[in-house]
Target: Cysteine--tRNA ligase
Amino acid sequence: MTLRVTNSLSGEREPFEPQDPDSVLLYYCGLTTSDPAHLGHARGWVHVDVMHRWLDWLGYDVRHVENFTDVNEKIVARVGEDGTSEADVAESYVRSIIEDMRGLNLKRAEVYPRVSEHVPEIIDLVERLIDRGYAYEANGSVYFDVTSFEEYGKLSNQDLDEMEAQGTPEEQSEKRNPADFALWKAGGVDPDAIEDHQHEGAAPPEEACETAQTWESPWGEGRPGWHIECSAMSMTHLDETIDIHVGGQDLVFPHHENEVAQSEAATGETFAKYWLHVRLLDAPDDEKMSSSLGNFETVAEALDSYGPNVVRTFLLSTAYHSPATYSSETISEAEARYERLERGYERATGALDSTDARTKVEDEQLRAAVETAREEFEAAMNDDFNTRGALASLRELTGAVNAHLDEHEAYDYVGLREAVETYEEFGGDVLGLTFGTGVEEGTVDLAGELVELVLSVREQEREAGNYERADQLRDDLEALGVEVQDTHDGPEFRLE
RNA sequence: GCCAGGGUGGCAGAGUCUGGCCGAACGCGUCCGCCUGCAGAGCGGAUCAUCGCCGGUUCAAAUCCGGCCCCUGGCUCCA
Model:
């Protein structure tokens, strides 16, 4: 069975065939480091992460690059609020973003390149475009001539005549065609350009702009344009042609379209074989979640409230290109979904470690269910990374595990072991969920022993018929995050 | 206006490429039963969908074709 992906270039689901059958070059359009990351960003990250993990599972050697845009007017707008200079502000957000990524249990990319560290490569690329007749200089700025690239518009299906102008009025006057876009911008940052983005506590615009970074170039001092960075960094760290380029749906035009144009004009080669676009996350009011609208939940807040597993389950409960809304309802459903999986895993591992698990016992139903779950998981992931379907197969596995444990006195050791391996391999390695972090009965650590102690007191109360006291102890434990469940074999607990 | 993606049960959300296994997955919710001092978890069962509208193709359509309505995103910084 082969992987199929929806390619924005063709608008169709296509078989995935990387240039080199053994490896995949993957680029993800990362963030501008001017605001804390919000859940919408996490949606992109987590889906790219799972794509990466699935490609690993399929046996590809994945080279994954994800940039930080640390040169941008919006960063300059934060000077005074979150730092003392553009570079300083950018650095503080890079740090918080990396922390968020860790918190989300993302597999590391191979490189996280920054624009500020790739200016020479950007300048080289711009020169190449000028040499080849695709770009021109005007007053120290350099623009890409969209009419020179015949295929301009092929990614977003835009028609040049229908397009509105890109750039500021000043830029417009320098351009040959309204749709031309800047590769290099002369000078520093114009105070007028940042005023609208400034918040309370920001430095005066003129002062903030003083701290904006500029670089020497063949056209004088200036700054790189927005789109050119990704082309330069993708080519530097991967290759002139990469296999998969992923980004937010909002970037299709103009950002990705321009990347295609400038890259392919410069190299004469295909820039990216497959373009995958992650749909934006919607806020409860059905609007997109975005920094500028201020209607977001930050990654840090979400992780704090729900933890990485619930957040990931929530994000993976919707296919990467489908609409998804973040609300208290949708996140608590994800919580229930994750917990059910985790309980199944814990029951399975607990049973496996008990003396009731026997290699001689064989439950055909359990084993068939494990087999089916594995097949369905694989089929779902291969079908354009259908994470919702993949999650569904693990639920069915959970149902089979629970049914087996409920219906039998002696357990099927081999079947349970296969089930546990499936959780770990697919739920763990591929979906990036972690199970079994709760403290098991009989765990040797102090917290566990103390809970045991409280539970034994509660058992005495129950035996004595003092249910009120027993329930009070249960409620108190609950308040501390210890969930108590009475079973045939005595009380069990798990930490939330 | 132009481009892209959506409209599936109370909610959420697969399936649409490759028409039939879809009288529609997984789940949340609700109800009943088992278990249980109670609760939770689990198990079993039930409830819940004329798949946006109209027309067409076909033995057969959520899935293909045509028209229309509505929503979201992009066309300005944005994952």
About this structure: Chain A has three domains: 4-278, 299-430, 446-495.
